Amino acid sequence: SEEDRARVWAEANGPEDFQQEVQRLMQLLPSAEPDNFVQLRLARDETVPTDPAPLLRAEVWFRKDAAATLARYTNDDRFFARQGGLSEASMEARRKVWLDRLKLVDASYTLSGDPTTGQIDIELGITEAAFRELASERGWSWDDEVRFTFAEEQPPAFLDASLQNQVRAFVREPSAPVV
Predict the structure, then answer these.
(1) Tens digit of each residue's pLDDT (9 = 90 or more) over 125-153
(2) Are strands 55-62 and 79-83 parallel, antiparallel or unpaired?
(3) CA dist., res. 139 & res. 27, Å (int)
(4) What's the pLDDT at 174?
(5) Which of 19, 43, 108, 146 could share a disulfide with 178, CB 3.0–4.6 Å?
(6) CB contact at 8 A, 131 and 150
Protein backbone atom coordinates (compact mmCIF):
# COMPACT_ATOMS: atom_id res chain seq x y z
CA SER A 1 0.00 0.00 0.00
CA GLU A 2 1.00 3.64 -0.33
CA GLU A 3 1.20 3.94 3.47
CA ASP A 4 3.57 0.97 3.68
CA ARG A 5 5.79 2.45 0.97
CA ALA A 6 5.88 5.80 2.77
CA ARG A 7 6.74 4.10 6.07
CA VAL A 8 9.55 2.03 4.50
CA TRP A 9 10.89 5.11 2.71
CA ALA A 10 10.90 7.10 5.97
CA GLU A 11 12.63 4.26 7.83
CA ALA A 12 15.33 4.07 5.15
CA ASN A 13 15.80 7.79 4.53
CA GLY A 14 14.51 9.55 7.64
CA PRO A 15 11.39 11.64 8.11
CA GLU A 16 10.30 13.96 5.33
CA ASP A 17 11.63 17.12 7.02
CA PHE A 18 15.05 15.44 7.33
CA GLN A 19 14.97 14.41 3.65
CA GLN A 20 14.09 17.98 2.64
CA GLU A 21 16.98 19.37 4.68
CA VAL A 22 19.37 16.84 3.08
CA GLN A 23 18.18 17.92 -0.37
CA ARG A 24 18.46 21.62 0.48
CA LEU A 25 22.02 21.23 1.78
CA MET A 26 23.05 19.04 -1.16
CA GLN A 27 21.92 21.73 -3.57
CA LEU A 28 23.36 24.63 -1.57
CA LEU A 29 26.73 23.52 -0.21
CA PRO A 30 28.63 22.56 -3.39
CA SER A 31 28.11 26.04 -4.82
CA ALA A 32 28.24 28.00 -1.53
CA GLU A 33 31.41 26.24 -0.31
CA PRO A 34 33.11 24.92 -3.49
CA ASP A 35 36.63 24.71 -2.03
CA ASN A 36 35.53 23.59 1.43
CA PHE A 37 32.51 21.25 1.09
CA VAL A 38 33.51 17.59 0.70
CA GLN A 39 30.43 15.42 1.05
CA LEU A 40 27.15 14.80 2.85
CA ARG A 41 26.75 11.20 4.02
CA LEU A 42 23.87 9.43 5.66
CA ALA A 43 25.14 7.52 8.68
CA ARG A 44 23.35 4.31 9.58
CA ASP A 45 23.34 2.00 12.58
CA GLU A 46 25.31 -0.91 11.12
CA THR A 47 24.80 -2.96 14.31
CA VAL A 48 21.17 -3.58 13.32
CA PRO A 49 20.82 -6.51 10.87
CA THR A 50 18.27 -4.88 8.55
CA ASP A 51 18.71 -3.63 5.01
CA PRO A 52 18.95 -0.77 4.97
CA ALA A 53 20.14 -0.25 8.53
CA PRO A 54 18.26 2.44 10.48
CA LEU A 55 19.29 6.00 9.74
CA LEU A 56 21.09 7.73 12.59
CA ARG A 57 22.14 11.11 11.22
CA ALA A 58 23.83 12.93 8.39
CA GLU A 59 27.54 13.73 8.43
CA VAL A 60 28.49 16.88 6.54
CA TRP A 61 32.18 16.92 5.64
CA PHE A 62 34.20 20.11 5.16
CA ARG A 63 37.93 20.53 4.61
CA LYS A 64 38.28 23.21 7.32
CA ASP A 65 36.26 24.91 10.05
CA ALA A 66 33.63 22.20 9.79
CA ALA A 67 31.50 23.05 12.83
CA ALA A 68 31.39 26.79 12.15
CA THR A 69 30.71 26.25 8.45
CA LEU A 70 27.84 23.82 9.02
CA ALA A 71 26.34 26.17 11.64
CA ARG A 72 26.03 28.87 8.95
CA TYR A 73 23.73 26.62 6.91
CA THR A 74 21.67 24.57 9.40
CA ASN A 75 20.94 24.27 13.10
CA ASP A 76 19.30 20.84 12.73
CA ASP A 77 20.93 18.58 15.35
CA ARG A 78 20.56 15.53 13.09
CA PHE A 79 23.43 16.95 11.00
CA PHE A 80 26.96 16.59 12.32
CA ALA A 81 30.03 18.45 11.10
CA ARG A 82 33.04 16.33 10.12
CA GLN A 83 36.39 17.77 9.11
CA GLY A 84 38.78 16.33 6.53
CA GLY A 85 38.91 15.07 3.01
CA LEU A 86 39.28 16.66 -0.40
CA SER A 87 37.13 19.13 -2.27
CA GLU A 88 35.25 17.90 -5.32
CA ALA A 89 37.77 19.63 -7.62
CA SER A 90 40.76 18.04 -5.86
CA MET A 91 39.17 14.61 -5.91
CA GLU A 92 38.29 14.96 -9.58
CA ALA A 93 41.89 15.94 -10.40
CA ARG A 94 43.12 12.83 -8.58
CA ARG A 95 40.62 10.62 -10.44
CA LYS A 96 41.58 12.15 -13.79
CA VAL A 97 45.26 11.29 -13.32
CA TRP A 98 44.37 7.63 -12.86
CA LEU A 99 41.69 7.53 -15.54
CA ASP A 100 44.22 8.89 -18.05
CA ARG A 101 46.74 6.26 -16.96
CA LEU A 102 44.23 3.41 -17.04
CA LYS A 103 43.36 4.19 -20.68
CA LEU A 104 46.78 2.70 -21.46
CA VAL A 105 46.07 -0.55 -19.60
CA ASP A 106 44.80 -3.28 -21.91
CA ALA A 107 42.37 -4.70 -19.38
CA SER A 108 39.11 -3.93 -17.65
CA TYR A 109 39.12 -1.86 -14.48
CA THR A 110 36.92 -0.09 -11.98
CA LEU A 111 37.82 3.10 -10.17
CA SER A 112 36.10 4.56 -7.15
CA GLY A 113 37.03 7.16 -4.60
CA ASP A 114 36.19 8.38 -1.14
CA PRO A 115 36.47 12.17 -0.86
CA THR A 116 36.44 12.04 2.95
CA THR A 117 39.77 10.18 2.94
CA GLY A 118 41.06 11.07 -0.53
CA GLN A 119 41.51 7.35 -1.19
CA ILE A 120 41.21 6.01 -4.75
CA ASP A 121 40.39 2.30 -5.14
CA ILE A 122 41.28 0.63 -8.44
CA GLU A 123 40.37 -2.93 -9.32
CA LEU A 124 42.33 -4.18 -12.32
CA GLY A 125 41.72 -7.13 -14.60
CA ILE A 126 45.48 -7.77 -14.93
CA THR A 127 48.02 -9.19 -12.53
CA GLU A 128 50.09 -7.07 -10.21
CA ALA A 129 53.28 -8.08 -12.06
CA ALA A 130 51.85 -6.99 -15.43
CA PHE A 131 50.65 -3.68 -13.99
CA ARG A 132 53.92 -2.93 -12.21
CA GLU A 133 55.81 -3.62 -15.45
CA LEU A 134 53.60 -1.15 -17.34
CA ALA A 135 53.83 1.40 -14.52
CA SER A 136 57.62 1.12 -14.51
CA GLU A 137 57.79 1.60 -18.29
CA ARG A 138 55.56 4.69 -18.04
CA GLY A 139 57.25 6.13 -14.95
CA TRP A 140 54.09 6.07 -12.86
CA SER A 141 54.34 6.37 -9.12
CA TRP A 142 51.79 6.49 -6.33
CA ASP A 143 51.52 6.40 -2.58
CA ASP A 144 48.90 5.35 -0.04
CA GLU A 145 46.30 7.52 -1.79
CA VAL A 146 45.69 4.63 -4.23
CA ARG A 147 44.73 1.09 -3.26
CA PHE A 148 44.87 -1.60 -5.94
CA THR A 149 43.19 -4.97 -6.30
CA PHE A 150 44.73 -7.12 -9.02
CA ALA A 151 43.63 -10.18 -10.98
CA GLU A 152 44.98 -13.51 -9.79
CA GLU A 153 47.75 -15.18 -11.75
CA GLN A 154 46.25 -17.64 -14.22
CA PRO A 155 47.47 -21.22 -14.23
CA PRO A 156 49.10 -22.56 -17.40
CA ALA A 157 46.65 -23.53 -20.14
CA PHE A 158 47.97 -27.12 -20.09
CA LEU A 159 49.49 -29.02 -17.21
CA ASP A 160 51.40 -31.07 -19.76
CA ALA A 161 53.06 -28.59 -22.17
CA SER A 162 53.27 -31.26 -24.92
CA LEU A 163 49.47 -31.17 -25.24
CA GLN A 164 49.58 -27.58 -26.41
CA ASN A 165 50.78 -28.64 -29.90
CA GLN A 166 47.76 -30.93 -30.32
CA VAL A 167 45.17 -28.18 -29.90
CA ARG A 168 44.42 -25.98 -32.89
CA ALA A 169 42.77 -23.12 -30.98
CA PHE A 170 42.43 -22.48 -27.31
CA VAL A 171 40.56 -19.36 -26.23
CA ARG A 172 42.32 -17.74 -23.33
CA GLU A 173 41.88 -14.19 -22.15
CA PRO A 174 45.00 -12.33 -21.05
CA SER A 175 43.08 -10.70 -18.23
CA ALA A 176 40.43 -11.51 -15.67
CA PRO A 177 36.93 -10.07 -15.96
CA VAL A 178 36.05 -7.26 -13.55
CA VAL A 179 32.49 -6.77 -12.40
Answers:
(1) 999 999 999 999 999 998 889 999 999 88
(2) parallel
(3) 40
(4) 59
(5) 108
(6) yes
The number of residues making up the chain comes to: 179
SS3 string, the chain, reads CHHHHHHHHHHHHCCHHHHHHHHHHHHHHHHHCCCCEEEEEEEECCCCCCCCCCEEEEEEEECCCHHHHHHHHCCCCCEEEEECCCCHHHHHHHHHHHHHHHCCCCCCEEEEEECCCCEEEEEECCCHHHHHHHHHHHCCCCCCCEEEECCCCCCCCCCCHHHHHHCCCCCCCCCCCCC
For range 89-107, the mean pLDDT? 91
Do 62 and 87 form a contact (C-beta atoms < 8 A)?
no
Rg of the chain, C-alpha, whole Å:
23
Whole-prediction pTM value? 0.71
pLDDT of the residue at 175: 57
The pLDDT tens digits of the residues spanning 71-80 come to 999 999 999 9
The rounded distance, in Å, linking the Cα atoms of 69 and 73 is 7
